[in-house]
Request: fold
Amino acid sequence: MSYYQMNENLSIDYLMKQGIFSETSNLTSREVGDGNLNLVFIVKDTLSGTSVVLKQALPYVRVVGEGWPLSVERTIFEANALEIHNRIVPNLVPKLLHRDDELALIVMEDLSHLELMRYGMMKMEKHPKFAEHISTFLADTLFYTSDMHMSSEEKKRLVAKFINVELCKITEDLVFTDPYYDADRNNINPRLKPYLEEVFWKKTELWLETSKLKYKFLTEAQSLIHGDLHTGSIFAGEEETKIFDAEFAFMGPAAFDVGKIIGNIFINYVSWSGKDEDVEKIQDYRSYLIETVKRLHRLFEKKFIENWKKDAQDISARVEGYRDQFMRNLFIDTIGYCGVVMIRRVHGLAHNIDVDGIENLEKRRDVQVKLLELGEILIMNRHQFNNIEEVTDMLRENIEGAKNL
Amino acid sequence: MSYYQMNENLSIDYLMKQGIFSETSNLTSREVGDGNLNLVFIVKDTLSGTSVVLKQALPYVRVVGEGWPLSVERTIFEANALEIHNRIVPNLVPKLLHRDDELALIVMEDLSHLELMRYGMMKMEKHPKFAEHISTFLADTLFYTSDMHMSSEEKKRLVAKFINVELCKITEDLVFTDPYYDADRNNINPRLKPYLEEVFWKKTELWLETSKLKYKFLTEAQSLIHGDLHTGSIFAGEEETKIFDAEFAFMGPAAFDVGKIIGNIFINYVSWSGKDEDVEKIQDYRSYLIETVKRLHRLFEKKFIENWKKDAQDISARVEGYRDQFMRNLFIDTIGYCGVVMIRRVHGLAHNIDVDGIENLEKRRDVQVKLLELGEILIMNRHQFNNIEEVTDMLRENIEGAKNL
Reply:
């Protein structure tokens, strides 16, 4: 069946035809997509109360419109990644119920009882299990798809399976390139523009260091990475954490996923400086965020090393000192990517509502400048930080110290 | 047509059927393969004097026999690489006349008027154009298949096309792993065994550094590399240089090709210490080899940088300081891979006749120990060398200085 675009009625017809619901169901469908690239329908049987999510790729970038075409084959990458995640970390991702590569759609477990982590964080919600869960997701997906564990052949087959040309290109351009000069696609707070022109775009050393990290993104096929692991790709509740939206997945630098999620937590951390909120509440929530990042990273390293000790197959991975230098390099790159993703969300094409929710453009600008400065510190000093505590100490000193909180 | 194994008569029949020779030809065929993996026929029309080479992959590693099966799909990689080389450096590779992926064969220009470079070097032959030619081959193939020049998409399509599972695995095992412990497949001069057991296999820091270089080989998709660029993969004459046998080609670390060819020249350089040859002749030939390596590397860097200035497409490749750090890293890795390939040819599965031609096993052992020591110096100090002259000075001092030549 060749591609056609779903709407709410068509999504019901399709799911009935596939036998995903019983013939006596009474289905309703609601389009809820708020991302940039896809249609998302929640289809529910009002009789039984069961529901599923149908996600279909659009043949263009939704936020820009039909002027930026994009192949729907990205659904194949998402389905392929989700199949692997379903094997490695079944409790931390939506169940994949059905895939249709021609229609560029997947049908998944409905997780709408959970809230998007980003929205929860904007309301200062705490997710007590998040550090535990995300560290498992990272340690398991990044280790078990690496050369340390996989055979040389299996690993290379994964590289071939995840030649994700278009979505990698989006990251290469929007994350690693456009923010460093006055690119057309940038989306700039007019109050920030003078700072970019007079200060930020003149930082050639910063652009150089970011370009080195970009080169790793282009060439380093280490692990199957999620590729877009921000707080908008995670459902988080009291007890559950579910990571989804893996359409950017490819065999890339493991540190990118780790740095990206930390960077997005740091963005939320900084964003409170521009918000009219009770000072003590902010202080408390920021402490929680810092603890979350520390725990997340400590647990990630611990679990990754445990996986290594237990399941490293390559004899070279057992050479004395090998794991230590690997972990060290992974950490350095993590800090670098963390800085890179903080910067790109300031004035690149895609922003975070954490910051864009600050309506006063001057206040927003001040937060944005702070994010750019912090991103720069992280990128430029990534080789100097010895552990995650030194990173969070720097952040705290820089943000809370300055405000005497 | 499904695979069948060629012999001299069948190779004639096949080429006649393909119309590669005219119907009035009078063909003779001669099997001349001396490699590890293939049959090679020179088929000649005794009337016109024209001739071609037909190369067919065997479904096992020839040197070991049918006990080590190997897919014949490697011919597809060789043909694919040769097509690209025919476009980028047409004068430096054999012309590809015909390919038959089912029969796992390629038909190429006959270059048997030229001598294998390795054999020439064993007779102290000089190849005055070699440095000029090989530096062009390296600079052009490695630059024009990299992210600096190619679009993100073209580059990734090349990665997918060259998922060369089996031949990469051979290098991963035989070059980067087996020589560092008492692996079954090693091929050890019995006089060398005590040194390996008492000294070499205890060098865990060396194994660690080699493992880091192995990891780059496993993960760094920089350029389409030849993958087996030693002096037995090159025909060299007075005026011509032709690089062939690209079946190991894949998207890997650019430095591997550069380091491998230099390492193989160094092996020849060291091998004379074990040979009964006129001292002055040795001295003269070694000076020539040192000059060749220096010129080769200087020219390679010069041409690579010229290509970059002229044809770098990626905006990040034009960021101030980017090219310099790239060239520096390329040099460091080159020296590392140079050391690695020197070591693997001592007691790994595949040796160089330059050294194995030394019949006296004690003399051969002395040369082998020297090669292991030099390989170690190169690998362990690769970050300290500033340029190729410092490398060749070290070599000269170590070999000729010690002998007061």
Notes: Residues 115-401 of chain A form a domain with the Aminoglycoside 3'-phosphotransferase; Chain: A, domain 2 fold (CATH 3.90.1200.10).
